[in-house]
Write a structure and sequence with these properties.
Layout lengths: L2 H20 L2 H38 L1
Helix pairs in contact: 1-2
């Protein structure tokens, strides 16, 4: 897990576990939300990188 998405996932897991231990359902839910946010960032980064690669490949073919 690298980058901002990975940090969100780690932070989220820590919040979730803290919420479970302390019985704080709100903190637990926030943690789960942070994990989803981190995964979304990871997926968007992957889509962005693949699109950039496809664009570069097309440019090489036409040059």
């Amino acid at each position: 897990m690298t980058g901002r998405g990975g940090l969100d996932k780690i932070k989220g897991k820590a919040k979730e576990v803290t919420g479970k231990i302390t019985g704080d359902r709100r903190k637990e839910a926030e943690g789960k939300g942070d994990q989803v946010k981190g995964e979304a960032k990871r997926v968007m980064r992957e889509v962005h990188d693949r699109a950039r690669g496809a664009r570069d490949s097309l440019r090489r073919r036409h040059n």
